[in-house]
């Protein structure tokens, strides 16, 4: 997806589902990439599906690296209060073909 198309898609997601701000989607894209890279590195560059548990662990690690002890406060400011909220963000990204299902 081209950067302009990506921006438009993210704007559309937030317009259609305003539960989470644009920053939450940007964070999720970065957290998924971080998690995929960590798994790829651990598996000697063999790409594979990221499980929900692995993604949540990656989100936690990435958030702590990026925001330290303010991570939880930031999640709350974004309307993220449960693990399921991360899933909702991922499903929105899949529905708009920013992420793919595997």
What tags apply to this protein structure?
single chain; 102 residues; mainly alpha
Explain what the structure shows.
With 102 residues, this protein is mainly alpha-helical. The protein has one domain (3-95). It is 70% helix and 0% strand. The protein has helices at residues 3-16, 22-42, 52-67, 71-77, 83-95. α2 (22-42) packs across α3. The radius of gyration is 14 Å and the shape is globular. The model has no long low-confidence stretch (mean pLDDT 92).
Task: Set out the fold topology.
Blueprint: H1 3-16, H2 22-42, H3 52-67, H4 71-77, H5 83-95
Helix pairs in contact: 2-3
Distance between the amino and carboxyl termini = 18 Å
- Total domains: 1
| Outline | globular
Helix content: 55-70%
Radius of gyration: 14 Å
Helix/strand class: mainly alpha
- Helices, by number, come to 5
